[in-house]
Amino acid sequence: MPEPFGENPGIQFQLPTLAAVSYGRTCTHTYASWKTVRNAGCITAGTAERFCTKCKEKETKALAALGHQYGTAVVTKKATVLKTGIKTQTCRRCGAKQNIIIPALAAPKKGTIFTAGYLKYRVTKAGVQNGTVEVAGVKAKSVTSVKIPTTVKKNGVTYRVTGIGRTAFYRCKKLKRVTIGKYITAIGAKAFQECNALKTVTLPAGVSKIETRAFYKCKSLQKITVKTTKLTKSRVGKDAFKGVSVNVKLQVPKKKLKVYKTIFTAKGISKKAEVVKG
């Protein structure tokens, strides 16, 4: 029954019944080790996660991208004087490729010597167009046959071969055959001196100068074919043909028969040599 409240027995009040209440406690997490869920790549992030050993709550974090691991750059396109080149690097991890530009090369200056094939060349006129070179020598003195080209290409630039330089084939004692390109205009001093095995030579139509001792002591030289009409006594050097075979045969242009016989004899050809029309 409700009990009377205060002095007035007509007012009654009943106290509520309290229910038991329970309060939860916050977990002081103890996490296990991080475990990778998704590996990071070169350019993509990865993911790792770990769990509380008490309440199993999960925590995640991002793993930073690793970045490319490039190997040594390899030239995939050579640079020339006219064009840039390319070096390529490959990632060791994912195979991605990266190109590096190689600057265009500087054009060789006058006097620069370079090798192409078995011959050495010297730049006589620089430039990316209309450049010229002369044969400066050979890689090996043991060469037996030589073909002097009309043009030669180096670093993307094509040069016209217009001369055979001083001592270019000096004492190449095994040299038997030589073909001289059509653009040759000059044969330098001692260019073929003491090429003892050389038997024949043809002087192209463009040759206008043969310097001192150019064919000196080429003792096996038995035939000289002259196609040029541009030689004069002053443009053929002293002893240019001295010491060649006594029985050498000289074949010359018809209109130059008499003049060339005089010039070549004065420059070393034996008076016994046979001079005929070409």
For this entry, give a set of tags.
35% strand, 1 helix, 278 residues, mainly beta, four-stranded parallel β-sheet
Q: Nutshell version of this structure?
A:
The protein has one helix and 21 strands.
Descriptive account of the structure:
This protein has 278 residues and is mainly beta. The chain has 1 helix and 21 strands. Strands 9, 10, 11, 13, 14, 16 and 18 form a 7-stranded mixed beta sheet that branches. A 4-stranded parallel beta sheet has the order 17-19-20-21, with helices on one face. The longest helix is centred in the last third of the chain and has 10 residues. The radius of gyration is 46 Å and the shape is rod-shaped. The termini are far apart.
Q: Kindly state the percentage of residues in helix.
A: under 10%
SSE order in H/E notation? EEEEEEEEEEEEEEEEEEEEHE
Low-pLDDT residue intervals, each spanning 5 or more residues: 18-23
- Count of β-strands: 21
Label the overall shape. rod-shaped
N-to-C terminal Cα separation, in Å?
Answer: 155 Å
Rg on CA atoms, Å: 46 Å
- The class by helix and strand makeup works out as mainly beta
Largest sheet: 7 strands, mixed
Report strand %.
Answer: 25-35%
Continuous helix count: 1
**Residue-averaged pLDDT:** 91
